[in-house]
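INTERNAL AUDIT FORM
Audit reference: QA-55
Scope: verify that the stored structure record matches its stored sequence.
Auditor: D.O.
Record contents follow.
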Amino acid sequence: MANIVVAIVGENANGILECQSQRFLGLMRSMGFEGRLLNVFDPEFGTKLHRALAEGVLFAWGYAGVGGRLAVNGRNIWDTAEVPFISVLADAPYIMPGNHHVDSPYVVNGYIYREWLELQEAHFRSPQVSTLLPMGVLPNPERQDVPWS
């Protein structure tokens, strides 16, 4: 059985999506899965992704849909690899509409907010599976290091 979980990140303000991805991967590691964080701006990104897929990826995800539209020779990479990809979406569908409408049975829209899921279903009508994905609060090991006062 595939044991690798891949988080794909890009560039964003303050690196928060990378931080969140690392925290989620930490949870996955505690459950016995191997977590790998891949940055699309890394010159070795393609090689690292190919290696992970060859070794067996259980699923992949990217906040804001980063990675959901990856393609090789015009074909979505998740379709080719037959690996589920979850677009974790906290933004409204009109922010980056292309990331909310990927014609792939392997790319799932996981909305953090019910309102954005309802908006997508009512107006964007993506052919892919779309669902509510309540995230909750991820552990913050640095919480005691912040001078809250």
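Auditor finding: record pair retrieved intact. The two ends are 48 Å apart (CA to CA).
Action required: none
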